[in-house]
Amino acid sequence: MTLEDLAAVGARAGGLLVARGQTLAVVDGATGGLMSAGLLAMPGASRFYSGGGIIYTLKGRRLILAHEPGSLRGLTSATEEYALAQANLIRARYDADWGLAETGAAGPGVHPLGVPSGTSAIGVVGPDGLRAAITVRTGSEDRLSNMMAFAAGALTLLAGTVANAAH
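Above: the chain's sequence. Below: its structure in C-alpha cell form.
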C-alpha cells in the first residue's frame, strides 16, 4: 500500500461526497493522519473535507472532540463502539454530514490497554443514524505497514458506506 493507493481510495470517497453535496470530518488515531492525507490528496477536497485531527492522548481527545467529561466513560479504546462514538463526536463538532474515526495499535509492542499490535477499530457515522464499523487485524508488528493498512481499511469502509447510503 502506498500513499498513491490511499489517495485513489480517498478520491473515490471524496467524489461520492462531492456528488452528494455532503461533508466529512475525520479523527485519525493510530493512522497518524494518513486517513486525512488520503482524502486531502484529492484536488478540491475542501468541497467535502470539513476538518479533523489526530487523537493520541486524552488531552488531545478532549481538545479535538470537545466532548462532555465522562461522555465516553465505559468505552474502551481500539473498539468499534469507541470508534463510532468518536466518529459521532467529530461529526457534531464540525457540523458535518459524515464522521470517520480510527483507533488502534500500530505497534510494535503492546498497546497500553493490551490491544495487540496490528489491531484497529474504524467507525463511520452518517446522516439518518447510519453507522458502520469494522476491525482490521493485520497480525503484524510493522508500524508503518499497519498504519497504511488501517488507513486503507478506513477509507474503503467510508467509500462503501457512502456509496450504499440512500440519498
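The first strand starts at residue 24 and ends at 28.
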